[in-house]
Amino acid sequence: MNQAKLGRTSAHRKAMLRSIVTSLFEHERIRTTEGKAKQLEPVAEKLITLAKRGDLHARRLVAGYVRSDAVTKKLFDTIAPRYRDRQGGYVRTVKLGERQGDAASEVIVELL
What we know:
It is a single chain. By secondary structure, this protein is an alpha+beta fold. It has one domain (10-111): CATH 3.90.1030.10. 55% of the residues lie in helices and 18% in strands. It is built from four helices and three strands; from the N terminus they run H-E-H-H-H-E-E. It has helices spanning 10-27, 34-53, 56-65, 69-82, and strands at residues 29-33, 91-98, 105-111. The protein has a three-stranded antiparallel β-sheet. Strand 2 and strand 3 form a beta hairpin. The relative contact order is 0.19.
C-alpha cells in the first residue's frame, strides 16, 4: 500500500495516527483533513476487528497502539460489541468542504 507522507517524518506520522485513532475511539466522531482521514480509516477498522476477537492477545495488540487504557477498555467493552454482526465498514467519512485558513479539505470521521 502506498502511504501518504502527510509532510511528516515516519515517526511523527505514526504518532499522529495513534493520537487520531485514540481520539476517534474516545469521542466516536472527529473532524480532520481528508488526507489524515484516508490514513486513519484502515487503522481504525483493523483495531475494531481485533477488539471483536476479544482475546488477551488482541487486547495487548490494541493496547500497544491506542494511547489510553480507558479508551482500550471502551473499545473492547462498548464499541466492539456494537459491531458483532457487521463484517467491516465501521467508519464513515463525510466531506465538509475547505478550511478557511489554508483551504485544506476537511471531513468528519465517525463510527457507525
